[in-house]
Amino acid sequence: MAKLVADSTYKIQNLTVNVKKIPFGTKWIKDSGNFRKGDKYKADRLMSGGSGKILGITIHNTGNSADAETYTRATFNQNMNSSRVHFYVDSKEAWQNLEENEVGWHAGTGDKGLGNDSYMAIEIIMGSERGEADRLAEENGALLTAYLLRKHKLGIDTVVTHKHWSGKECPIYILPHWDEFISLVKKKYDELAPAKTSDNQPDEYAASAVYKAVQGKILAGTPEGDLRLHSAVTRQDLCVVLDRLGLFDGLSAGN
Ligand SMILES: [Zn+2]
Fold first, then answer.
1. How far is the CA of 248 from the centre of ligand 1 (A)?
2. How many helices (H) and strands (E) does the chain have?
3. Which terminus of the chain has fewer Cβ atoms in its 10 Å neighbourhood, N or C?
4. pLDDT digit of tens for each residue in the chain (255 aa)?
């Protein structure tokens, strides 16, 4: 099957992040496991009870018989059962599948449990061999983690293992040297330029409207996912919003 095309990409140092987010409102197109055709394909809600507040990052390992693009493609093709993670990262690149502040399914804590409700998931694709590909994947995972910590103003102590939540031996290839991994995250954190902060936290009065606007794809952020909630709207921004609302449907483009 053809490779996926990202909706956008950005760079963190030399790491390319391919952004291909599962749209809100996506449904199962078939019965699968505990899901029935027509069920929601992902949680479809923002973290921390709908406020979108991110509390930290959960690190996972998944086997390296496939790369990050393949895992993302399998997700889009509805072949990943109940796994919905924010990022897959391998020795070459990363793929983002979810909004950073929406609920994923990865921690084994249930939909409302803290691990899923408030933590981003990064799946680092590694094998058991600790060869060069594993080393690069782990380094890319550490860099992505450091970038997200800075972006969302989170402390390094908010980086946790899947094991922390459910007792599962995950990230299985990193657990034996977890402290080394955290040191690598710290090193990457120090290398990255301080605080290219995002403006994704709505004021309370606007939270529900912002959620609907993001869900309805009326409001989109920068490729890095910054919604710039407190920035002013230009006249061309207004045209884009009206267009996304469908108000120009049926109008001739004037040609
Ligand atoms: Zn895991």
1. 45
2. 8, 7
3. C
4. 689 999 999 999 999 999 999 999 999 999 999 999 999 999 999 999 899 999 999 999 998 889 999 999 999 999 999 999 999 999 999 999 999 999 999 999 887 889 999 999 999 999 988 899 999 999 999 999 999 999 999 999 999 999 999 999 999 999 999 999 999 999 999 999 765 567 888 888 998 899 899 888 888 888 777 899 988 889 999 999 999 999 998 886 554
From the CA of 163, how far away is ligand 1's center (Å)? 7
Range list for CATH 3.40.80.10 in the chain? 8-191
Quote the ligand 1 centre to 252 CA distance (angstroms): 51
Span from the CA of 217 to the centroid of ligand 1 (angstroms): 30
Q: How far is the CA of 86 from the centre of ligand 1 (A)?
A: 12
How close is the Cα of 107 to the center of ligand 1, in Å?
Answer: 7
Determine the distance separating the centroid of ligand 1 and the alpha carbon of 124, expressed in angstroms: 9
Helix axes 132-151, 178-191, angle to 10 degrees: 60
**Contact criterion met (CB below 8 Å) for 174 and 124:** yes
In terms of Cα–Cα distance, which of 145, 150, 121 is closest to 43? 121
Counted residue by residue, the chain has a size of 255
The answer to whether 26 touches 42, Cβ cutoff 8 Å, is yes
